[in-house]
């Protein structure tokens, strides 16, 4: 793959060893085309029942999040449901999967491998000491020349490692035609604070072709915790491919969009405007997606807000054809115990830093789940062009450790570390509790009853 940036001031011997130690670049897009690339509008809208929309949102949280999310997929795979063509699996009804940080590995691996995931994912990723392997690579003198003097960082080293153990060099172009759900993972751009989603719609804005971007680099960016990993660099070619942000907004939302968006759409609009400055933001520096959306729900909330605000968007997105719409939020956020309140002496700097960054993210994550429920109530009041209710049944299914009834078991899961190494027992317990919490969810039980009742009624 083409490399960008220049190495300067390095000894000849080092250059011989490392070449130009620069990061892989994302290629420019010659001309923006609404039908090109990995985007939702060109995806298989008819996957599963066309009247049933099912989204799975996977949160951040290292291997804890990856294993917890995987347990949800396993449960959906085990669940038989009636379909228009006979009995099927609920997993095959999933239309969209979002992933953040640790959840991005499960989301991308499932999009790439489909059924193969359930034979290989444990050994290749979940039950591997990823954290130890990465530390070993960074401390290995053979890696130092590669990370010296150029733009290639330890995060790029991590991306190459993820390729070797899991993604096998696959790109977003490879996901097309795989038959799986559309998968949307995200990272945070540190200069603007914008959420950068790995789909061609966002990369149109950057005038870049996502097709040649490796899945491993997206996962590395989404999980690049500041202070632990360096930002993952991407090139911004905005303004070179004929992309018109205003015209694109009007195309999706209709002429009324000129009045200006509100709420989450307005925030997203401001982020897009910032990213459109390909001079001031010529280089993008991406870090952990949890800083802008730790439960993977922001894209879902923006879509629901657009659905409520725009009849044109309901038609373009196919939402007006749905009879049921369910969102499973796989929220693996932890809340480890501490005894700080029993001591006069304050905690150490490292502990304070971890807590200071974690508390706002956790609070924002729970707020997003509540916003999802608010939107569900609002959208149930929507009416179509004929003035009749849209009659879409909504299911907001929130799966989190807070629903565990046994105090000791709840404490066990809330104290699991946010790292990329867990014991085999911890991984297996996360998978088991994920399935159990999903089965026990009242909203999930209601969904299964309604699907069965709908089938018996011949609808």
How would you characterize this protein structure?
Strands 1, 4, 5, 6, 7, 8, 9 and 10 form an eight-stranded mixed β-sheet that branches. With 459 residues, the protein is α/β, with parallel strands linked by helices. It has helices at residues 12-18, 62-78, 102-113, 117-126, 130-139, 154-167, 200-205, 215-222, 245-253, 263-275, 298-309, 311-317, 349-379, 407-414, 424-440, 442-456, and strands spanning 52-58, 80-83, 86-89, 96-100, 182-189, 195-197, 232-235, 283-287, 324-331, 393-400. Strand 5 (182-189) and strand 6 (195-197) form a beta hairpin. Mean pLDDT is 81; it is low at 1-20 and 349-361. The radius of gyration is 22 Å and the shape is globular. Helix 3 (102-113) packs antiparallel against helix 8 (215-222).
Mean pLDDT: 81
Which ranges are low-confidence, i.e. pLDDT below 50, for 5 or more consecutive residues?
1-20, 349-361
| Strand portion | 5-15%
How far apart are the first and last residues' alpha carbons, in Å?
51 Å
- Binned, the helix content reads 40-55%
Give the overall shape, derived from the CA principal axes. globular
Order of helices and strands: HEHEEEHHHHEEHHEHHEHHEHEHHH
* Quantity of strands, as a count: 10
Name the structural class: alpha/beta
SS field, number of helical segments:
16
Which sheet architecture does the biggest sheet show? 8 strands, mixed
Cα-based radius of gyration, to the nearest Å: 22 Å
